[in-house]
Specification:
single chain; 181 residues; alpha+beta; Alpha-Beta Plaits; five-stranded antiparallel sheet; four-stranded antiparallel sheet; 6 helices; 9 strands; 27% strand
Length: 181
């Protein structure tokens, strides 16, 4: 069973920086595939979440929050293509926020931030630990992403929908490059 690991708050603004490609190479015994620069990894070999988390943290010079899910969880959450049919608009970014765990309390969805006036961030749906939404390409929208933790009561990390699609491609190919389709 493949795992997907999302590190929170790394390689942002010069703080808690590391080279994900080097870390992925150090974790090659787990069949780790690095996706981008934000600390997103697909773990292709069978390993428990706790063992992989400890190996990952052991190799970093700081202790980030790590959200780990199974490939089945991610595939199920994204299975109905939450952004299918949406026209591409360069001023809008589709995102997925991964919650550390399923929230005990969930605000009413869809939700917009701010609630009144022109929205900067909109959460359109939730599937288990995954939130699907969009934000405007404006500096003020980034601070809105930080409010997701408070609204759902658990830590969250956010990735662009393109990153999630890249993860799904790796999983679709079975992590070894052979197409499973």
């Amino acid at each position: 069973m493949a795992l997907v690991a999302f590190l929170r708050g790394v390689n942002v603004g010069g703080h808690r920086t590391f080279r994900p490609s080097i870390l992925a190479n150090q974790l090659k015994d787990f069949g780790v595939v690095n996706i981008g620069a934000a600390g997103t990894f697909v773990v292709c070999r069978a390993v428990s979440k706790s063992r992989f988390r400890s190996e990952l943290l052991r190799r970093l010079p700081f202790e980030p929050q790590v959200m780990i899910c199974t490939h089945q969880e991610l595939i199920a959450a994204a299975s109905d293509s939450p952004f299918a049919g949406e026209p591409h608009r360069p001023e809008i970014v589709h995102f997925v926020s991964v919650l550390a765990k399923r929230p005990r309390v969930s605000p009413s969805i869809p939700l917009c931030i701010p609630e009144q006036g022109k929205w900067l961030l909109r959460v359109r749906s939730r599937r288990g630990r995954f939130l699907f939404g969009e934000y405007r390409r404006e500096m003020r929208a980034i601070s809105c992403l930080g409010r997701i933790d408070k609204l759902f009561g658990v830590p969250a990390t956010t990735r662009n929908w393109n990153t999630i699609r890249a993860i799904l491609k790796v999983l679709e190919k079975g992590c070894d490059g052979r197409d499973r389709g």
